[in-house]
């Protein structure tokens, strides 16, 4: 089935001039529909974006992270929340609330990042299946002289897949600590119908150093949304 639409979510990360090692994430929704990113911070750090938020088409939001910040991002789609922030998402739900205080409900694929304490140290990222699998996710770094390689799913073979749309996240890292994510995903059937799961790479990456990023570094994140997790789950 042909792809019917494209959707882009851009996440830019850069350092603040006056705060030597502070990092700012800017997320911009270039989709034609609303999305609900979820975030979870580690090491006792403040949760970025209160843990979750709504991004209407064409809107953006900035999130500031301190040095040594670590955390995760994941996709939430098909969400419905009331004025109090209570509700539910089709994928990536975090306890039925808009502002997550924990991770997304398994099965959910994660993108995890650790920001260095200073610009001379290394950043780390990985694609993790520790909480299961709900969407195809990958990160790829291009350019620069660091060893920032692709991690994640290369391709999924789907029996009777129904493909509706895709979105792409591109991540770019420069000496100015600029990071751009563009998410790409394509709807498909439940995980039970997916074959050849061995095509997924190990959920880890090699080390990547900002110090070696002399030229812009690009990372591609490819995500695929599940159309049906279980009978009666999708509305």
TrEMBL record:
PROSITE patterns in UniProt: THAUMATIN_1, THAUMATIN_2
SMART domains listed in its UniProt record: THN (SM00205)
Record's keyword terms, sorted: Signal
Signal peptide: 1-22
Pfam families: Thaumatin
Domain of life: Eukaryota
The family this protein is said to belong to: Belongs to the thaumatin family.
Protein name: Thaumatin-like protein
């Amino acid at each position: 089935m042909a792809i019917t639409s494209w959707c882009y979510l851009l996440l830019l990360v850069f350092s603040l001039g006056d705060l030597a090692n502070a990092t700012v994430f800017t997320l911009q929704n270039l989709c034609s529909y609303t999305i609900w990113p979820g975030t979870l911070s580690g090491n006792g750090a403040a949760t970025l974006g209160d843990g979750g938020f709504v991004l209407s088409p064409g809107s953006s939001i900035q999130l500031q992270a301190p040095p040594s910040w670590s955390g995760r991002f994941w996709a939430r789609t098909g969400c419905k929340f009331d004025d109090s922030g209570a509700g539910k998402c089709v994928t990536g739900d975090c306890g039925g609330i808009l502002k997550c205080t924990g991770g997304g409900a398994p099965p959910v694929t994660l993108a995890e990042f650790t920001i260095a304490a200073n610009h001379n140290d290394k950043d780390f990222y990985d694609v993790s299946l520790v909480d299961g699998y709900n969407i195809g996710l990958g990160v790829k770094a291009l350019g620069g002289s660091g060893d920032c390689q692709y991690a994640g799913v290369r391709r999924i073979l789907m029996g009777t897949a129904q493909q509706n749309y895709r979105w792409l996240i591109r991540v770019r890292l420069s000496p100015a600590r600029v990071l751009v994510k563009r998410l790409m995903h394509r709807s498909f059937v439940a995980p039970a119908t997916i074959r050849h799961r061995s095509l997924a790479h190990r959920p880890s990456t090699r080390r990547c150093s900002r110090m070696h990023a002399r030229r812009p570094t690009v990372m591609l994140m490819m995500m695929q949304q599940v159309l049906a997790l279980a009978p009666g789950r999708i509305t």
